[in-house]
Amino acid sequence: MAVATGLVSFALGTDIAGSGRIPAAFCNVVGLKPTRGLIPALGVVPACRSLDCVSILALTVEDAAAVCAVATGPDPQDAYSRPMEPRLTTQHTTSGCRFGIPTQLDFLGDPEAAHLFDQTVARLEAMGGKVIAIDFAPFSEAGQLFYDGPWVAERLAALETFVRTSGDAMHPITHQIIAGGANYSAVDTFRAFDRLQHIRAQTRQVWERIDCLMVPTAPTVYRIDAVEAEPLRLNTCLGLYTNSSIFSIWRPLRCQVDFGHRGYRWASP
After folding, report:
1. Is the pTM of this model over 0.90?
2. Domain ranges in the chain?
3. Dihedral sign for Cα atoms in the order 68, 197, 206, 86
4. Contact indicator for 11, 31 with CB cutoff of 8 Å
């Protein structure tokens, strides 16, 4: 809210499955989840150390890019941080850029959200973009694998002492999810890693056909009291399209894409 009201130019958050991008969208500001590891996560309370990602909330795309440029770089105290790979110099305009759009988009009964997304797609087509229908199923499966698989055990590994000694201080749903990590075995973990590799192979085929993947940040928006009544289900619904970015199956743009409007110009790290 501080960013949305103009009190500050930017703020930092965290984003594994959408915790930065979704609030940014709801506040009408820019939410950037850099490629994992580019911004060191030293000092962040860990959720999943191998997946934790510092995110940026800013008033404009330019501000988000400027903050990202300053913040990136390896930190010797963060084993998961890494240097940025060299960028390609190729530049693309919207004309001829191949936008992947899922063949079946679910807006959970929100016709206004569906209409706004259709308007955006139509605008990109009018500017010369080429829309290519893609199967979003493997991306969705990756998101489900995180929540319904053994990665929850990594959350327990990061917070085990606190969960066992001060679990009553946690939100009941949060405690339920993290404590459930004890139910997974090493066998479950290796099975999940194997499945993830198969998913990556499927998504690589998709990326051969498109330059960008375009999905809604969130399919709809809920009132706070509704989320408090059903936190697990409704938060899962909100992450319908962002959850798939948890693992390295979204290819970062290696070039600049200029959509002709400051809110759509993007040079991805």
Report:
1. no
2. 1-84, 85-150+185-267
3. positive
4. no
